[in-house]
Amino acid sequence: MKKTLFALSLIMLFPIGANAETESSTADNAPAATEQTASIESPTVNSGTIESSGTVNSTVASATDNSEVKDIQQAKDDTIDQIEKETGVKKSSDPIGSEHDTNKIREMLKGETMKSIITPSEVDSYTDQQLLNAMTLCERISSDTYGLDVSGYARILQALYKDKSLSWDKIENIMNYNPSNYTNALEMIDQIDSLQAYLAALYPSNSSFMPIRQMSNQELSNVLKYISPIQEKMIGTEGDFFPGIIAWISRYAEKDEVRNGVTTSSTTETSTTESSTVTSTTNSAENKAPAKDNNDKKEDKGGFLPKTGEERRTWLTAAGVIILAIIAFIMIRRNRKK
């Protein structure tokens, strides 16, 4: 009988011990697997910089592609090209400047190179005051866009007093408003009505010299908002804004997406993209990081035992001892009865 009970106890304890060894082995290997998974999925945190599937910097850098201000020189060239096409007057390396001697003005207008634009007899038909008015307007348009040569001046003179698509009376009344006095296009929005009157007088849509598309206040505000970051970057990198603000307004007034406020220039876009990219990457890292912390907390609930599977093995050993004690107790009772 004793041998039978002892054999039965061994049979019962064997699966328990084997199971303890298996669970211990699994527990020992679990940390390595966890570490391997973490190394694949979790972002690397290095001195406060989060890196996931490539660095944030590389992601942000790619966001600056297709940028309106990525190449300032190209942006300037495109604006100048458009004004040259509209006016038929090239940006001059030798602008007419501020000439107020009417005799010299007439002399320039009668030069050989000017005969295809204006005849000597036409020059003589203009009064000295008309020549001076045209020169005043030429100086302002040069400030609004870029320097004009004598051919540009002749075209302005004709727009004022030949085809009369420009009215000096309207222009004179609004000349106190100077768009070049603003350091940023956004400041012009507060005086949008004055800007509208200025454009209507100097650059009406029917002008024979430089027409600018007529826009609503909202459309013009959208154009100014688009120009603002370009202007800010240009002044920051080059110290000035060239060509003048009116040239930029003229260029973007023809772009439906800018005029309707569908798009913004790249400085704003890049800033927003960088912010969303960093936030998204950070959130991704934070969502993964707590998982490891939670696992650590669960492992810590085991008290003072090391995290190697010993907790389960000790419990199974204790269970085996209890079973042996019960068997021994039964055997002692039977011996006493005998």
From TrEMBL:
Biased composition (Polar residues): 25-66
Organism domain of life: Bacteria
Residue span, Gram-positive cocci surface proteins LPxTG domain: 305-338
Keywords: Cell wall, Membrane, Peptidoglycan-anchor, Secreted, Signal, Transmembrane, Transmembrane helix
PROSITE patterns, sorted: GRAM_POS_ANCHORING
Ranges of compositional bias, category Basic and acidic residues: 67-103, 289-307
Keyword match Transmembrane: yes
Transmembrane portions of the chain: 314-332
InterPro entries named in the record: LPXTG_anchor
Location of region: Disordered: 25-103, 259-307
Signal sequence region: 1-20
Ranges annotated as biased composition (Low complexity): 262-288
Keyword Lipid metabolism attributed: no
Protein known as: LPXTG cell wall anchor domain-containing protein
Organism: Enterococcus hulanensis
